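Progress report, Aim 2. The chain analyzed during this reporting quarter is listed below.
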Amino acid sequence: MKSLPVLRAWPKPFKKLVFTFVLISFIGVVVGGVMIEVTTHLTPQGVVEQYKGISKSKIEASEELKFPKPVKEMLITTHNHILGLSSLFFITGFLYLATGRDSWLQLSIAVEPLISLFVTFGGLWVMRYLWSPFVYIVILSGALMVGTYAWMSFVVMKESLSKQDKG
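Predicted structure tokens for the chain:
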């Protein structure tokens, strides 16, 4: 099987396009992370309250009201994130695979955000309607998703700035 040339060997205009795409996409994901911090304070309780609402006993002490997310809003959140992020993770994973040799580790890293995307947003449904402690799986898979995506973005941007080896 014939493989693609490594990203480092791509023509300069393509590498600039790749760098710009990955940088802007990464900034978009960071803004999404800030949004999660603002709405959940990055705590398990904050995530549960964001989707299940605040219990009646805590409403008076709470600074803001949060109500259980209705099915329609859960569907919109799941649909938008899976559709948008799967395309982003596929493109970034494809570019990441173009940065080096074929290995099981590199392939695992390229596929991981797609698997975590399913676990994270499927897990929100489990946490919302079935079992609140599933929030820990949601947080773990979300952290893995963002961590591997950030790693791939860093490697792709670094390779797209590299000069082609002369040899």
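Residues 22 and 91 are 9 Å apart (CA to CA). The chain has a mean pLDDT of 93. These observations will guide the mutagenesis work planned for the next reporting period.
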